[in-house]
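Lab manual, section 2.4: Encoding a predicted structure.

Procedure: take the sequence of the chain (298 residues), apply the prediction step described in section 2.3, and record the output as C-alpha cells. A sample record is shown.
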Amino acid sequence: MDNLKKIGSTGNIALKPHHKIIFGSVSSIVIIVIIINSIVLYTLFAKQKMDYNELNADIKEMQNNINTLTENLIETRKALESTVEILDVKIGTIGQEFDLLKASAGEDFSGIIENSIPSVVTVKTNIGQGTGFIISDEGYIVTNAHILTGVKIVEIATYEQDSIDADFIGYNQDLDLALLKIDGRYTPLKLANSNNVQIGEKVIAIGNPLGLQFSVSEGIVSGIHRPGLNQIEAYIQTDAALNPGNSGGPLINKQGEVIGINNFKIGGGENLGFALESNYIKRYVNEIAQEALNQTLI
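Recorded output:
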C-alpha cells in the first residue's frame, strides 16, 4: 500500500538513464533528418531556380536570335526586291536599246512597231475612216479634224479589234486637229520634242491606207518646218508612203516617239507626205482640252 501511494502521489513514472539516452538519440536523429531534408529541399529549389533562370536566359537569347534573323530576312527580301526592280529596269532598257540599235542600223523597226501599234486606232465614221493615236492613259485620242467633217457617228476600232463609241471633245480647224475620248485605260504614245528632229533620220508611219488597217510604211525625214496648206511652217516632210486613210496617224522616230501627225500629201509627186510637228500637237491639243475640259492632257 505504501508503494502504491508513492506511485499515485507523483503521477509519473521516472525514466531510467538508458531510456533517456535512447530518447535523446532518436530526437537527434529526427532533427538531423529534418535538417538534411531541408538542405536537400533547399538545394533542389535553388537548382530549379537556377535552371529556370538559365532557361529564361536561353529563351531570351533565342528570341533575340529569332528577332535578328527576322530582321535579316526582311532586309534580304527588300534587297532582293530592289535588285529585281533594278534588273527589270535594266532588262527593259537593254530591250529598248536593242530595238533602237536595230532601227538605227536600218535592220528593222519591228520592236518599235510592236510597242507602238497597240496605241494606234482606226477612226470610223458614217462617211469614211482615218487614223488616230492615243495620247493619254485615260483614252484621249488625237486625229485630223477633216476626218470628222459632216459626220454623225464616230467609232474607234482598237488594235485588239474592239469597237468603242467615241466622244467628241473639240478641234482646231487651222491645224486640222481633233480630240476624241473613249472609255477605258490605255498605253499612250509619247510625243517627242520636234525641235530635235533631223533631216535624214528614219521614221515610220502607221495608219489605215485605203482601208488596210494598221499598215506600216518606212521612210526618212526629207525636210522640217515646211509650210502647210495653212501657210504655217510647222510640218515635217517625209518620203514614207502616205495614202488616204493615213490621215491622223502618227509619224514615229527610231526611239518610238511621235514626231508628227500625218496630215496631207502633195498629189502629182512621189512620196511627198507632210506631218504636223509634235510640238504643235502638244500645244494645241492642250488648248482644246483646257477650253473643253479645263485641264492639260500632255
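Check your result against the sample. The mean pLDDT is 83.
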